[in-house]
Every structure is written in structure tokens, then in C-alpha cells.
């Protein structure tokens, strides 16, 4: 979920930290007692940007409180960052009604004007990129350099779709009779319900919303309960950019209400489109709800990406690609390599160099510390899953090369871990870990590697390293995934289609194809000529 260009830039330079601005006071009743600073780190980058740190829902161009609020926690320390409006099914249905009223006029706005408004939103994101990045780091734990990269990636989707808005073309079809003309129109589908994850709390919104607004749709966004501040900050900037009331709406909610809100959005008769990024299990539930009214859906679901290293590969390049693919965002991306399949003749060399790279280049710490490359996992449950996968592998004969346990910094931190002697019967071989765990499996032949790679019921991304041109073509075509990195560990870009095969989802996001997910084709037959 990250472009090659911005990730490379994030890994090299040292960005200056933004000095603290004024701190916010907690909403009454949110904290158990007294006033508290938003962060407690020393020397620490201080408070978050008050102008962008909104706490209410955003519906119809207005900031609306809810009857209750839920706390948002800093995954690095467990401290409360603030409390956010806890919307329920009633608020969700109201937001859809508002979005539909706005759609009735937004669909008639010219493509040029929609393009201009998206461009203004992009410009405001760039102007506020440092503050937006601080919000991401605070609520997700992502290292600040990576958060700065995500904001650029996120803004680029608004820029891209501001340009694509003016390229929605219809068609003229020759008919068999001279008395008729046939036209094909492309029209916006209507209100889109957008449900986004916590691991890319800004980019996953703009990748969907940019396309939707460019097409002439309006949206209701339900952000992840762990990271709502980023979605609300985008709402503030959308409002400043002049996006009309009701076109972009945000309804945050707690985990307790997420099921009801998701169902309300997927079953509302005025919602024409569902776009979801998250787990395959949750995606199946939403698909079931959407099926009753036959809604259009886009699903970017779980992955279990193989990373294959053939004996013809440049091992040093493969290690560099493995580091980039596996450990950004502490292994918490859907396109992270989850299984490392290495040909027997180069296995030991690869494992040795991979271990050295992990020990030398990865630094666990708070995301605001300049040296940090690995922040915390999002919560305790995420850490427990990594522990479970490591424990299961060790009980079945795997060996810890480096890492293997929780980090001394705190409960949500886990050491970057490399396992060898991994086999196909271990959990980490057939379940997505979503954490900093790299299991290495030996293979002997190309056919064996491809079979192992394709054994999963998901197929989002896959990677392999080889210097054999014939093998490159064979394997690229045989891998059952939606995206393939050949001698490259970073594959995502706004210009290229993002999506998977099998149970990794439906549809594509980004690229020139992304806007089609929000358009209907209408055939018009003009007779009597």
C-alpha cells in the first residue's frame, strides 16, 4: 500500500521533527481525572495540531457530536489521545440520507469543477503534510518518516483523480441500421459507503474517496476505531477546500458499534456502492449484507504474500527487497511478504544476510523518535497473534535466527523476527501474520515454489527474485495474485491498479481503472433518425 518512490525517500533522509504546538484539553468526561498532555515522551514532539484534531462526526458540512464518545489510544504508550464521537446505526443512516441529498446536486457539477475542488483538497494536504503525519504517528504508532510518506501517497490520490475526473469518456457505437444511433454514457453510481482500516488511515480513504468524488458520487466514510483522527482531519481540509456539504461525510464509531454501523451502511437502500479494505472475514460479512440489495462492491481483503528467491537471484538485492516488503509499518500491511520461499542452494546465504540486515537496519522505538524504523503493533491482540505464530512454529521445529519475543519497550512492541526451518504445517505458512515475522521455507524446484505460493485461498500480492528471463515470464504469469513484484519489494503506485485474486477481494483501486468502480454504463438507443 505504498509507492516505491515515497517509501524510498522515507528510508533515506532524516526529516526534522515538528516542534510542539499548543496542547489540547480533554473533552469533559473522556479522561478519568484531570488534565493530561496528549503525549508523555521526552524529549518528544509534543502536542498534536489542534486545528486538525477534530472529535465530532462530520455530516452535511457540520461537526456533530454524538451522545457518547470513545477513547483513541496511543499504541506506543496506551495513553488516551482524546475522545471521538461514537456514532451508531441511527447516525449512519442519517449520514447516508444527507449524502444522497448532496448527490442529487453533486452529480450535476461539471467534471472540471469537481477536478478543481479535488485539486484544492490535494493542495491543502500538502500544505499541512507535517501535521497530518503527526496525527498518523500518534494514533497508529507508525514511524514519523513512514507517516510523512503516507501523507504524500494519500495526497497523490487526490491529485491523480482530480485529473481523471475530466477523462470519463462515453462511447458511440455503430448500429446495423442507418435510422439508429447507439451511445454509451458513464454516470456516477450514487452514494458510496467507504469502510477503511487503521494501518493506512489516510491513504485508504483518499484512494477510495478521490475516485468516488471524481466520478460524481458522494461518500460516507466509517474509519477504523483505532485511527479516526486522520479521517476527521481530512474532513476539515475537505471543508476548507470547498467540497460541498454532504459530499464527504465521516461517522467514527467504537468497536462495540462497528458491526451495527457496517450493517446499516450495507443495507441502506440509498447506498449504491460499498468499498471496504480490511480482513477477508469481515469482507464476507459485508458482502452478505450488500447482496440482499445487490449493491456494487469493491473489496480489498487479506493477503498472504509469498516472497520467492530463486537460485539465479542476486541475493543482496533479494535481501534489500525482503527488508522493504516485510518490515514497513512493522509488518502491518496487506501486501507485506508473509512467507519467504528460498531455493535450497542459496538458502543459508540468504538467511545469514537477511538476519544481518535486520539486526543492523531495524530499530524498534516510539514513532516520533528519529531513529525508529519499527513502531508498536496496533494493539495487544495484534501482538498476541505474532506470539501465537512464533510459538506454534517453534513447537513444530522452527528455529529463531533473530528476535522471537516481545520487545522490552512495552506490551505492543515486538522484536523483528526471522525464523528458519519453517515447514508448510505451521500457522505462519498458511495464515497472514500481520506483524514483524519473517518465516523462511526451503524449496528445491520452481514448480514446488509456485505450488506453495498458490496454495493459499487469497492472492493479493506476490514477489520473486530471479535473473532468468524465461523463468521471470513463467512465474509472473503463474502466480495467482493480483500484483507481482519481480526483483522489486515495493510495488504500489497511484498510477497502477491495486487489488487481488481469489479471496483477496473484488475490483481495483487507483490507476485509470479505479474510477470505473464508481461509474455505471448506460446504453442509449436513439432511433427515428
TrEMBL record:
<keyword id="KW-0520">NAD</keyword>
<feature type="domain" description="Aldehyde dehydrogenase">
    <location>
        <begin position="66"/>
        <end position="524"/>
    </location>
</feature>
<keyword id="KW-0560">Oxidoreductase</keyword>
<keyword id="KW-1015">Disulfide bond</keyword>
<dbReference type="InterPro" id="IPR015590">
    <property type="entry name" value="Aldehyde_DH_dom"/>
</dbReference>
<keyword id="KW-0597">Phosphoprotein</keyword>
<dbReference type="InterPro" id="IPR010102">
    <property type="entry name" value="Succ_semiAld_DH"/>
</dbReference>
<dbReference type="Pfam" id="PF00171">
    <property type="entry name" value="Aldedh"/>
</dbReference>
<dbReference type="InterPro" id="IPR016163">
    <property type="entry name" value="Ald_DH_C"/>
</dbReference>
<keyword id="KW-0496">Mitochondrion</keyword>
<comment type="function">
    <text>Catalyzes one step in the degradation of the inhibitory neurotransmitter gamma-aminobutyric acid (GABA).</text>
</comment>
<dbReference type="InterPro" id="IPR016161">
    <property type="entry name" value="Ald_DH/histidinol_DH"/>
</dbReference>
<dbReference type="GO" id="GO:0004777">
    <property type="term" value="F:succinate-semialdehyde dehydrogenase (NAD+) activity"/>
</dbReference>
<dbReference type="InterPro" id="IPR016160">
    <property type="entry name" value="Ald_DH_CS_CYS"/>
</dbReference>
<dbReference type="GO" id="GO:0005739">
    <property type="term" value="C:mitochondrion"/>
</dbReference>
<protein>
    <recommendedName>
        <fullName>Succinate-semialdehyde dehydrogenase</fullName>
        <ecNumber>1.2.1.24</ecNumber>
    </recommendedName>
</protein>
<comment type="subunit">
    <text>Homotetramer.</text>
</comment>
<comment type="pathway">
    <text>Amino-acid degradation; 4-aminobutanoate degradation.</text>
</comment>
<comment type="similarity">
    <text>Belongs to the aldehyde dehydrogenase family.</text>
</comment>
<keyword id="KW-0809">Transit peptide</keyword>
<dbReference type="InterPro" id="IPR016162">
    <property type="entry name" value="Ald_DH_N"/>
</dbReference>
<dbReference type="GO" id="GO:0009450">
    <property type="term" value="P:gamma-aminobutyric acid catabolic process"/>
</dbReference>
<dbReference type="InterPro" id="IPR050740">
    <property type="entry name" value="Aldehyde_DH_Superfamily"/>
</dbReference>
Amino acid at each position: 500500500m505504498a509507492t516505491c518512490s515515497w517509501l524510498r525517500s522515507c528510508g533515506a533522509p532524516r526529516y526534522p521533527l515538528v516542534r510542539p504546538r499548543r496542547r489540547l484539553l480533554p473533552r469533559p468526561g473522556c479522561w478519568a481525572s484531570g488534565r493530561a498532555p496528549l503525549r508523555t515522551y521526552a524529549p518528544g514532539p509534543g502536542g498534536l495540531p489542534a486545528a486538525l484534531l477534530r472529535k465530532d462526526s462530520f455530516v452535511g458540512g457540520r461537526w456533530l457530536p454524538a451522545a457518547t464518545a470513545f477513547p483513541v489510544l496511543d499504541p506506543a504508550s496506551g495513553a488516551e489521545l482524546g475522545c471521538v464521537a461514537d456514532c451508531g446505526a441511527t447516525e449512519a443512516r442519517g449520514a447516508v440520507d444527507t449524502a444522497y441529498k448532496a448527490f442529487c446536486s453533486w452529480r450535476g457539477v461539471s467534471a472540471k469543477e469537481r477536478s478543481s475542488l479535488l485539486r484544492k483538497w490535494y493542495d491543502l494536504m500538502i500544505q499541512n503534510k507535517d501535521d497530518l503525519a503527526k496525527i498518523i504517528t500518534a494514533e497508529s504508532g507508525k514511524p514519523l518518516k513512514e507517516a510523512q510518506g503516507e501523507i504524500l501517497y494519500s495526497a497523490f490520490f487526490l491529485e491523480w483523480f482530480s485529473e481523471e475526473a475530466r477523462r470519463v469518456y462515453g462511447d458511440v457505437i455503430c448500429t446495423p441500421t442507418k435510422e439508429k444511433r447507439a451511445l454509451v454514457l458513464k454516470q456516477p453510481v450514487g452514494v458510496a459507503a467507504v469502510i477503511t482500516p487503521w494501518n493506512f488511515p489516510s491513504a485508504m480513504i483518499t484512494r477510495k474517496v478521490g475516485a468516488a468524488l471524481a466520478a460524481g458520487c458522494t461518500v460516507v466514510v466509517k474509519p477504523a476505531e483505532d485511527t479516526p483522527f486522520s479521517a476527521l482531519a481530512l474532513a476539515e481540509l475537505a471543508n476548507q477546500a470547498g467540497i460541498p456539504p454532504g459530499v464527504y461525510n465521516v461517522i467514527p464509531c467504537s468497536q462495540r458499534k462497528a458491526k451495527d454501523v457496517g450493517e446499516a451502511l450495507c443495507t441502506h437502500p440509498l447506498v449504491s456502492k460499498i468499498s471496504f479494505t480490511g480482513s477477508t472475514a469481515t469482507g464476507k460479512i459485508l458482502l452478505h449484507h450488500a447482496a440482499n440489495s445487490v449493491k456494487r462492491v469493491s473489496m480489498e481483503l487479506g493477503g498472504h504474500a509469498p516472497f520467492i528467491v530463486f537460485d539465479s537471484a542476486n541475493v543482496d538485492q533479494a535481501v534489500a527487497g525482503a527488508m522493504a516488503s516485510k518490515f514497513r509499518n512493522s509488518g502491518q500491511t496487506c501486501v507485506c511478504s508473509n512467507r519467504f520461499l528460498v531455493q535450497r542452494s542459496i538458502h543459508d546465504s540468504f538467511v545469514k544476510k537477511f538476519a544481518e540486515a535486520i539486526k543492523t537496519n531495524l530499530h524498534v522505538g516510539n514513532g516520533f523518535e528519529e531513529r525508529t524504523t519499527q513502531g508498536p503493533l496496533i494493539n495487544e491482540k495484534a501482538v498476541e497473534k505474532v506470539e501465537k505464530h512464533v510459538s506454534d512454529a517453534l513447537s513444530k521445529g522452527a528455529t529463531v535466527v533473530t528476535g522471537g519475543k516481545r520487545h522490552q519497550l512495552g506490551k505492543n512492541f515486538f522484536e523483528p523476527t526471522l525464523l528458519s526451518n519453517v515447514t508448510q504445517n505451521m500457522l505462519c505458512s498458511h495464515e497472514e501474520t500481520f506483524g514483524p515475522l519473517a518465516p523462511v521455507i526451503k524449496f528445491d524446484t520452481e514448480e514446488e515454489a509456485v505450488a506453495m505460493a498458490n496454495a493459499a485461498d487469497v492472492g493479493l500480492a506476490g514477489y520473486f527474485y530471479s535473473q532468468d528471463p524465461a523463468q521471470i515470464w513463467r512465474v509472473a504469469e503463474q502466480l495467482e495474485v493480483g500484483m507481482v513484484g519481480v526483483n522489486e519489494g515495493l510495488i504500489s503506485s497511484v498510477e497502477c491498479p491495486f487489488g487481488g485474486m481469489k479471496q483477496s477481494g473484488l475490483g481495483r483501486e487507483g490507476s485509470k481503472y479505479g474510477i470505473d468502480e464508481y461509474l455505471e454504463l448506460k446504453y442509449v438507443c436513439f432511433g427515428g433518425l
